[in-house]
Structures are given as C-alpha cells and as structure tokens.
Design goal:
82% of the residues lie in helices and 0% in strands. By secondary structure, it is mainly α. The protein has one domain: Rhodopsin 7-helix transmembrane proteins (Rhopdopsin 7-helix transmembrane proteins). The protein is globular and about 50 Å long. The mean pLDDT is 89. It binds retinal. Retinal (RET) binds at residues 102, 105-106, 138-139, 141-142, 156, 159-160, 163, 202, 205-206, 209, 231, 234-235.
Length: 253
C-alpha cells in the first residue's frame, strides 16, 4: 500500500516535471498571470501529496472521500501545468482547457457530497446520480455555449439550470435533508461549508462567462487570475474541509 502511494505520487511529480520541461519559452519574471499558474500548480501538487498521505490518519469509511479530494487536486495539477505552458507560449488560455478539467473534477467534487454522507449513514444512491447528472448538464450546457455550438445565452441558461438543480439538491433536496438528520456535528459543519463553496465560490465561473461571452469581452489577464484564485479555494479548501471532517470523525468527534 505504501509503495503504491509513493509510486502514484512519483508519477504525478514526473508528469508535472516533464510538462514543465516541454515548454520552450521561459516564464517572464513580470508575467503575473503565468506566475499565478505556477503557484496554483504547486499548491495542487502539495495538496495531492497531503491528501494521499493523510489516508493513514482517517478511518476506513472516510478513505474514499479523502482519496477523491486528492484525485481532484491531482488532476487539476496536471491541467495547470499544461495551461501554464499554453499561457507562457501563446499569452492565451482557451477556456476549453478549463472545461476539460472541470468535466472531470467537478463531478468528482459533487460526488463528495454523497461520499461524506455515506461515510456516516445509509443514503439513497439516487443522490449520487442526481448530483452527477446536474453537474453534467451545467458543464455541457456551458461548454456548448462557450465553444459556439449553440447560442451563448442558451448555453448559459442550460448551465445555470444545472447549477440551480445541484444547489437545490444539497440545500433542500434529499442530500441536504440527509445531512441535517445525520446527527453528526462535524458532518453538518463540513456539509454547510462545502455548500457555501458551491454557492459563493462557484459563482465566479458563471460570472466569468457573463463578462467573457455575454457582455462583450473581459481582459484575458484578469479572467485567468480570477479563475486561478477561484480554483485554489474551490479545489484545495474544498478538499481540506472534507479532510478535517474525516479526521474529526475518525477520532470519534
Ligand atoms: C475546480 C473547478 C470548478 C469547481 C469549476 C466549476 C465550474 C462551474 C461551477 C461552472 C458553472 C457554469 C454555470 C453555472 C453556467 C454556465 C457556464 C458555466 C459552465 C461556467
């Protein structure tokens, strides 16, 4: 098990290093957007190593949740290395690279709501499927609009509908009710904090869409820095909340 973990971490580091080495242009010292890509990449790497290593400190029913937190930051780490290279070479980060990341990491993050609930009580698997489908509607709608396959406003509306549905499920739907009734204090606190991230932290992405596609353009520098900072909170802090709940529960709190 230990060797496997070390191997997985080494693999991540190698992929990162080789992506970095592939760049033929160096990061300019005054390129703050490029520097923010680097900082977030390293944050993601550190978070990944942390979550995987912390497996040892949580009880069996919590390992899956902490593992998935590590997968999310690990996948984002590799995407960030790649996006940083694209930025440094071209001065542009086509949003499609972000969508590739979101398409994998966002469903994984939402599945966490199901995973942390099932770590403390029996829950209906319908929660899992409904949240998953909501996330796909949100992302596919946004992508089709942003990439120009459908009208941008229509794509936006479909995306918002998916997001609103997810919010409904985790606030007042079965997932929200199951958390409230769990009688587990750490879980209730963590569930509430994760829900705030999905409401407030995630609002940054549709705002970026509005400014970028509906109101006629936003500065690429600003948009990238904002997305980078948002991802830092929405992926790393999100994982840390799950981890701290896992640790508290594993110690019987
Ligand atoms: C780590 C990356 C995360 C948490 C990305 C989240 C992305 C969203 C919440 C995107 C939402 C969108 C809408 C709600 C409306 C349509 C456009 C999107 C896809 C940007």
């Amino acid at each position: 098990m230990k060797t496997l973990k070390t191997l997985a971490l080494a693999m991540f580091a190698l992929i990162g290093a080789s992506t970095a080495a592939n760049a033929t242009t160096f990061l300019a010292t005054d390129d703050f957007v490029g520097i923010s890509f680097w900082l977030i990449s390293m944050g993601m790497l550190a978070a990944t190593a942390f979550f995987f290593m912390e497996q040892a400190n949580v009880s069996a029913q919590w390992r899956k949740s902490v593992n998935v937190a590590g997968l999310v930051t690990g996948i984002a780490f590799i995407h960030y290395m790649y996006m940083r290279a694209v930025w440094v070479e071209t001065g542009d980060t086509p949003t499609v690279y972000r969508y590739i990341d979101w398409l994998i990491t966002v469903p994984l993050q939402l599945v966490e709501f199901y995973l942390i609930l099932s770590a403390v009580r029996k829950v209906d698997s319908g929660i899992f499927w409904r949240i998953l489908i909501g996330s796909l509607v949100m992302l596919i709608g946004g992508y089709l609009g942003e990439a120009g396959f459908i009208n941008p406003a229509l794509g936006f509306i479909i995306g918002i509908a998916g997001w609103v549905y997810i919010l409904y499920e985790i606030f007042s739907g079965e997932a929200g009710k199951a958390a409230a009734k769990s009688g587990n204090k750490s879980l209730v606190v963590a569930f509430g904090a994760l829900r705030m991230i999905v409401t407030v932290g995630w609002a940054i992405y549709p705002l970026g869409y509005v400014f970028g596609y509906l109101t006629g353009g936003i500065d690429a520098n600003a948009l990238n820095v904002i997305y980078n900072l948002a991802d830092f909170v929405n992926k790393i802090a999100f994982g840390l909340i799950i981890w701290s709940c896992a640790v508290a529960n594993s110690r019987g709190r």
